[in-house]
Design a protein that fits this description.
Length: 697
């Protein structure tokens, strides 16, 4: 983790953007300085490899987080998918590929299914699996359609019975007789009726009707088409029953048996023909086993008509192939079980992880992940009701506070960066607006050392921030529990457009604010006015009421306000006793050994302070000198207030030195004063030096 700490406006976000654009091989045109003409000042960057860079900034929040249907875009990819997931999916796909072989490529099976379908269409069944006795079937079961064994009276018509067109001919003859038979003459040759023709006509109409003839012909034709798959003996026996009035019950039973066998086999073959291995996936695998079993042929169900060697051979091969597929299904079911368990465990882990973070950070919400079909998920946020139950939050991006939105976004970004295996992760001011508890909770989760695979720990991270706390937590106190070599920090400053990075070293550049005040007060290289101000502040840290408890504090305060002698009051009338002065000076000499009240009082005359301000190099010490100057001259203080009251407040509080933190940068090595304050202070001092009354002092 590389921390780049600097004030607002120094160019941290610009650097982040430049790195990202360079990684995408995009020009840095948008980063050209304002006012540049025709790109004459187009910036450039070196050392950025083309590749995967993840950057967290306002753009990321607006583009990827708080989507209409999910907290984050591509929630499944970000939160669930991993190498383990890919491995599990690969195993399933391989097992599926073995099943997605087809058993429909056998032409014989396809032809047989079609031919049996034709036969089934000729013998209609009722819902009770009995022959429907209507139409042609009714006539057949009444003995009609019996042109296979025509009555003796019809022997003269035998040539017509032997033709394939017998049904058409019979229909034609029947129709002609029905329309013109009453005329007593043949409608074709005009031959008159005889006893013989009357007998033929009567026998013909008794033995045949159109639908019966057509139905019988269709059955025979269908049987012919199935000849290789049928028992020749059984078919011959069946045909012999047509038209034999004494055998009509037997005929019905045999047709029923034939139809039942055909129907059973057709159902199996249809399942085989229309089996689509490509449609098999992990969602319908539960039904696949049943589907495959329903495709197997039980020879006990086709033990009469469909018992040819060809049927036994073909169906035996199919049954073997189905058994092979069933074995692969068991393997697939095992892999799917592992896959589903992974998904469930991953979802539970993500929910637990993020909800633990929300709880630690004090957010009263609950995180959830819901699967939405294969390879898709949505991340949702729920608010907790007073009764402990939770309810989905609609459009959370519109209802959450800025801090809440950024907190969730940061954690989701972390998972996104991990998923994309980013070579460099950039965090642009990620925590500046949070309170200290939330800051630590967020940073601690981002760099969680106990979960390297699900955090940014030991990944290359550039954190750009104007927040000092990460520097303290990860450099000085190591509350983040990083190894010394896994984290570094630099102080980043922009001086008139020139950028400078200075390493921040533990114990050398970072120290307790109180210790720093003590060192500044004791450092003879520092201006005496600054030493006095720092020592007084140091004493403030030691006592609850320093003006009552510390004689040294009152002596230093008197010096800073230009009193001729040390006093307790601002009016200078309540003087310290000799003993109190001695006690106070002895304390001060532990820090300033050559302390002399009168001498330092003279050194802190306004004109002297202005002269030393002019030659002082340290911006921070300049601020301390300027503060001493405004303490000596109330009018000067008012002029500063009128000139720039923000600067006045900064000067007043300069010696607080990062008062919000226990630790501080060593101001002797780091310029922590913003450029605009330095420039304004320089102008104010120039104005002061130019004043007539000042020159006369």
């Amino acid at each position: 983790m590389n921390i780049l700490f600097g004030r607002n406006g120094t160019g941290k976000s610009t650097i982040a953007r430049a790195i990202y654009l360079a990684s995408q091989e995009k020009p840095l045109t948008e980063l050209a300085p304002y006012g540049s003409v025709n790109g004459t000042a187009l910036p450039s960057i070196e050392g950025v490899e083309n590749g995967n860079i993840a950057i967290f900034d306002d753009n990321y929040v607006s583009q990827y987080v708080y989507q209409p249907d999910s907290l984050i875009k591509d929630a499944f990819e970000v939160l669930i998918r991993s190498d383990e997931y890919d491995e599990a999916k690969k195993n399933i796909d391989e097992a599926l590929a073995k099943i997605k072989t087809t058993i429909t490529e056998r032409k014989e099976i396809i032809d047989l299914q079609a031919q049996i379908g034709i036969l089934i269409d000729t013998i209609k069944f009722t819902a009770n699996n009995k022959i429907a006795k209507r139409g042609g079937a009714k006539g057949i079961l009444e003995g009609k359609g019996a042109f296979f064994k025509p009555p003796e009276e019809l022997n003269e018509l035998k040539p017509f019975f032997e033709e394939d067109t017998v049904s058409k001919w019979a229909s034609w003859r029947l129709q002609g007789y029905e329309l013109f038979g009453q005329k007593g003459r043949c409608p074709y040759c005009s031959t008159g009726d005889t006893e013989k023709t009357k007998t033929i006509n009567k026998v013909f109409t008794d033995s045949f009707d159109k639908s019966s003839v057509e139905a019988a012909a269709a059955i025979i034709k269908a049987l012919e088409g199935l000849k290789p798959y049928l028992s020749e003996e059984k078919v011959s026996q069946l045909v012999s029953l047509f038209g034999v009035k004494e055998d009509l019950k037997v005929l019905e039973a045999q047709l029923t048996k034939l139809r039942a066998e055909a129907n059973y086999l057709h159902e199996r073959l249809t399942a085989i023909v229309f089996f689509n291995g490509s449609s098999v996936d992990r969602n319908n695998i539960a039904a696949l086993e049943s589907t495959l079993k329903d495709m197997k042929v039980d020879f006990r169900a086709i033990d009469s008509y469909f018992i040819s060697d060809l049927i036994i051979s073909e169906m035996g091969d199919v049954n073997s192939e189905i058994d092979n597929l069933l074995g692969k299904v068991n393997i697939l079911k095992s892999e799917i079980g592992k896959y589903n368990k992974y998904i469930q465990d991953k979802i539970q882990s993500r929910k637990q992880d993020i909800n633990d973070f929300l709880n630690l950070a004090g957010f009263k919400y609950m995180f959830d992940v819901e699967m939405v079909g294969e390879g898709n998920a949505r991340a949702v946020l729920k608010y907790i009701l007073p009764d402990g139950n939770s309810r989905d939050m609609q459009a959370p991006g519109k209802h959450l506070s800025w801090g809440e939105k950024h907190s969730f976004a940061l954690i989701l970004f972390m998972f996104d960066a991990i998923h994309s295996n980013a070579k460099l992760v950039i965090l642009d001011d990620p925590i500046s607006s949070f309170d200290s508890n939330k800051k630590y909770a967020i940073i601690n989760r981002l760099f969680k050392t106990r979960d390297k695979r699900n955090s940014l720990y030991e990944k290359t991270v550039l954190m750009l921030t104007h927040d000092f706390e990460p520097v303290i937590d990860y450099i000085q106190t190591n509350s983040g529990r990083q190894t010394p070599t896994s984290v570094c920090a630099n102080y980043f400053e922009n001086i008139d457009g020139v950028l400078q990075c200075t390493p921040i070293r533990k114990n050398e550049d970072l120290m307790s604010s109180v210790v720093l005040l003590k060192e500044l007060a004791s450092d003879p290289a520092i201006d005496i006015a600054a030493r006095i101000g720092c020592l007084r502040k140091f004493i403030e840290h030691q006592f609850k009421d320093p003006s009552v408890e510390s004689n040294a504090y009152n002596i230093l305060s008197s010096l800073m306000h230009g009193r001729e002698e040390p006093t307790f009051d601002t009016e200078g009338t309540d003087k310290l006793s000799d003993e109190q002065v001695t006690t106070g000076i002895n304390y001060i000499k532990d820090f300033i050994p050559d302390f002399d009240y009168k001498l330092i009082l003279a050194q802190c005359m306004p004109i002297c302070l202005m002269e030393r301000y002019k030659i002082e190099k340290s911006a921070y010490i300049k601020m301390l000198i300027l503060r001493a100057y405004t303490e000596r001259d109330a009018d000067a203080r008012n002029r500063l207030r009128q000139y720039n009251d923000v600067l006045r407040k900064y000067v007043d509080e300069t010696y607080h030195i990062e008062n919000d933190y226990l630790y501080s940068l060593d101001v002797r090595h780091f310029n922590i004063v913003p450029d605009n304050y330095i420039k304004d202070a320089e102008q104010y001092v120039a104005n002061e030096r130019a004043r007539f009354d000042f020159k006369s002092i």
